[in-house]
């Protein structure tokens, strides 16, 4: 069968691989010059490894991508422990002022890991082990015990239908209490989901906690190394890879499908964002089918990469900014995870946001984004010097898992025979990730 796979990210590449293995004639269409989609990487001339345009790591529970790597003969994935921390501001938490709530708290906790160059108004707390949690000064002992029990329950419980009946806020307030919600979760949800934060289903928090891991995985050479490796493997299996090719129209012929009024196929698999897929399939899908997708909401990822001489964060890899005074969602100090020697000895930090389509950040160029972020970054480290920078926008990168999403998300099977969808909306309840992209690509290939 002649099969067109639309999109050359992890889902499309995986589908192309398994379909070509089955003997189908596969063509992969990708609008960019390089495959990889949201996981795409780039390399400065003096770097040895690729770097993802958006921070990427794996979790040790993510078997699908590990198994896929084995299937294609790639064994360059490794895991290591990292430090996740959270930043709080003193003005919102008066108990953080020295002398009031600090009595008896060990120094390394009081000062977090950012000892010297941070404004006195802020504190960083490591928060990724039970010990860290017990030392966390913003919750009382009864609150910590109760919150810890709920987290342990979520970690071990199977998926419950209850998680789709309550929002995460309702669930966490009910089970952990209002104060714990305010301290641990509220700002994280607001930063990740913006104005949709209060509608996010509890299933999202279940999936996050179930999958949480202390050890994070990475790919030797960067994720792009695996992407390039799979590209070569699929080409070796006869897949035609058409890069720099935007699919802007899909039509139906008597026997199958026509791409851009030219190329004919028996089967189409779309891994494109649902919004884009809906635009190019207006003539083949019934209107009511496409209308349901108009109810899905997304945020766009904005990621600023800073290459610096000194690290912005001293030890932490992943810093959640739990302060409304700093309009940044996360900072990921990549070189506290992966050795800086692969990036010419310089430090790499990602600064990340998720924004709505009308957010002014989407209109900012790199220089404006740096100007916007810098005063806030200086509060955390006053002494960093930017050598190079990159700005990346990931369109439709964060689906909003609310009740509308549950009712309207796409499925593999569509009303048009031989047209399949496999895209990041279908990783629910798990947050999108390369592991799930690979899983979707493999599963959709089994339907053909
Ligand atoms: C900020 C951020 C952080 C992330 N962190 C992690 C992480 O730590 N770990 C992890 O595993 N995952 C992470 N992810 C998620 C991961 O990158 C994605 O889940 C995965 O790459 C999705 O793959 P995909 O193939 O389904 O979609 P995509 O990668 O979006 O692929 C779709 C492809 O379709 C192409 N395309 C679009 N329109 C057209 C068109 N008209 N014609 C032809 N081609 C078209 C696009 O260019 C793209 O290459 C992160 C994502 C973001 C945005």
How would you sum up this structure, described in words?
- With 448 residues, the chain is α/β, with parallel strands linked by helices.
- The chain is built from 15 helices and 20 strands.
- Strand 11 and strand 12 form a beta hairpin.
- The longest helix is centred in the N-terminal third of the chain and has 16 residues, at 141-156.
- The N and C termini lie close together (9 Å).
- Flavin-adenine dinucleotide binds at residues 6-12, 29-32, 37-39, 54-58, 246-247, 271-272, 276, 301, 303, 352, 394, 397, 423-424, 432-435, 437.
- The site of flavin-adenine dinucleotide has 36 residues, from helix 1, strand 15, strand 19 and helix 15.
- Residues 10-380 form the Amine oxidase domain.
- GO terms for molecular function: oxidoreductase activity.
- InterPro entries: Amino_oxidase (IPR002937), FAD/NAD-bd_sf (IPR036188), Zeta_carotene_desat/Oxidored (IPR050464).
């Amino acid at each position: 069968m002649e099969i067109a796979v639309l999109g050359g990210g992890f889902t499309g590449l995986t589908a192309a691989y398994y379909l070509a293995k089955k003997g189908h004639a596969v063509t992969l269409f990708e609008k960019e010059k390089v495959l990889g989609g949201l996981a795409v990487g780039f390399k400065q001339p003096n770097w040895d490894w690729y770097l993802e345009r958006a921070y990427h790591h794996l979790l040790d529970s993510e078997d699908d991508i590990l198994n896929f790597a084995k299937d294609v003969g790639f064994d360059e994935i490794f895991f290591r422990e990292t430090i996740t921390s959270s930043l709080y501001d003193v003005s919102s938490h008066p108990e953080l002022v020295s002398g009031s709530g600090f009595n008896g708290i060990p120094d390394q906790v009081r000062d977090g890991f950012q000892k010297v160059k941070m404004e006195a108004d802020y504190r960083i707390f490591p928060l990724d082990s039970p010990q860290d949690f017990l030392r966390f000064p913003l919750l009382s002992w009864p609150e910590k015990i109760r919150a810890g029990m709920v987290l342990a329950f979520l970690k071990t419980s199977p998926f419950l239908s209850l998680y789709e009946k309550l929002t995460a806020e309702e669930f966490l307030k009910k089970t952990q209490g209002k104060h714990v919600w305010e301290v641990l979760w509220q700002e994280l949800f607001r930063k990740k989901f913006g104005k949709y934060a209060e509608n996010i289903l509890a299933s999202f928090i279940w999936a996050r906690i179930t999958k949480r891991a202390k050890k994070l995985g990475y790919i030797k050479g960067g994720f792009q190394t695996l992407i390039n490796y799979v590209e070569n493997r699929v080409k070796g299996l006869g897949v035609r890879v058409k890069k720099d090719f935007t699919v802007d129209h899909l039509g139906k012929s008597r026997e199958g499908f026509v791409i851009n009024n030219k190329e004919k196929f028996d089967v189409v698999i779309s891994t494109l964002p649902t919004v884009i897929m809906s635009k190019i399939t207006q003539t083949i899908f019934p209107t009511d089918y496409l209308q349901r997708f108009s109810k899905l909401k997304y945020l766009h990822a904005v990621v600023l990469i800073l290459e610096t001489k000194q690290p912005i964060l001293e030890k932490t890899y992943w810093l959640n900014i739990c302060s409304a005074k700093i309009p940044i969602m996360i900072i990921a100090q990549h070189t506290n995870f992966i050795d800086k020697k692969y990036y010419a000895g310089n430090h790499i930090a990602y600064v990340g946001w998720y924004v709505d389509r009308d957010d002014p950040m989407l209109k900012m160029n790199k220089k404006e984004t740096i100007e916007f972020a810098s005063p806030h970054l200086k509060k955390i480290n006053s002494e960093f010097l930017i050598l190079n920078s990159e700005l990346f926008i990931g369109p439709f990168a964060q689906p909003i898992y609310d009740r509308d999403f549950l009712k309207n998300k796409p499925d593999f099977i569509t009303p048009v025979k031989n047209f399949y969808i496999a895209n990041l909306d279908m990783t629910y309840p798990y947050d999108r990730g390369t592991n799930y992209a690979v899983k979707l690509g493999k599963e959709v290939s089994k339907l053909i």
